[in-house]
Every structure is written in structure tokens, then in C-alpha cells.
Amino acid sequence: xxxxxxxxxxxxxxxxxxxxxxxxxxxxxxxxxxxxxxxxxxxxxxxxxxxxxxxxxxxxxxxxxxxxxxxxxxxxxxxxxxxxxxxxxxxxxxxxxxxxxxxxxxxxxxxxxxxxxxxxxxxxxxxxxxxxxxxxxxxxxxxxxxxxxxxxxxxxxxxxxxxxxxxxxxxxxxxxxx
Length: 178
What we know:
By secondary structure, the protein is mainly alpha-helical. It has helices at residues 15-34, 40-62, 69-72, 76-88, 99-122, 131-162, 166-172; strands at 8-11, 174-177.
């Protein structure tokens, strides 16, 4: 086998997916680390993040090939196959998300929607000042940050294992495999 084969380039992430990803990263980081809770900017960034996720869900059905959920949805069979390949050290290439990455992506967008709902409810008459709702919002936010950090670390580690710069691929849209 020729190990000097040049890497092949695959157009994976379209402009919308990349815009969604980096915009959501910005909203989450700003709201968690820079903007005080309860400020109007915090609320609007939360609403924008929720709108981004809703748009991404729609794009998951009508978008480009690798943006569609059907291309990467983490079914039990896909997860089992991927985990088995990882355990045995066999290559299990995926142009888009691998099954564990897909599971993480779906978890992260679910957390963002949960934050959007709990944040919105805190401003309603019915739930104004409810301690349990504020605590739930904080737990969701901390969980999101922890899992986002794990997601970033996994992208770096998997990129090294697969010899692909996954971070660069999320910037350019092109994944070089090989």
C-alpha cells in the first residue's frame, strides 16, 4: 500500500453549517463567560442561539448532503459499529460527523434549546423568580460548557487519529482525508 498518497479533499460543511457552528460557539461563550445573567444582551444572545438551533434542525432535513441528519444520525447500529472499530483500531472514516460526534452534536443543540426555554420562562409572570428554574438553567449552561469542551477536545484528538484537521474543516468546509 502506498503511504505517500496525497490526501483527498471532500467538501463537507456548507456555508450555513459553518455559520451556524461559529455563531453558536460565539453566543455560548459570550453568554457564559462575558455577559451577566439577566442582562438584555444575554437574553437576546440566548434567543439568537435558539433560533440558530431551530434553523439548523430545519437544515438537517433540507440542507446539503453532509448537513442532513440522515447522513450522520447516530443509530444504535452505527454507534455499535463505530465503537467496535475504535476498540480494534480499525479505520472507520466518515465524511461528516462520526456516530459519536453526531450524538454529541445532537446533545449540544438539545441543551441550547433547553437553555432557551428555561431562559424564556424565567421572564414570564408564571415563573418569575422561581429558584428551581434558575438552578436548572445554570445546570444546563454548565453542562453545555463541559460537553462543548469535550467536543472540542474530541475533534482535536480524532483529527490526529484520522490525520485530518477537523477544526480547519469547520472553517473552510473542506475535510482532507488520507
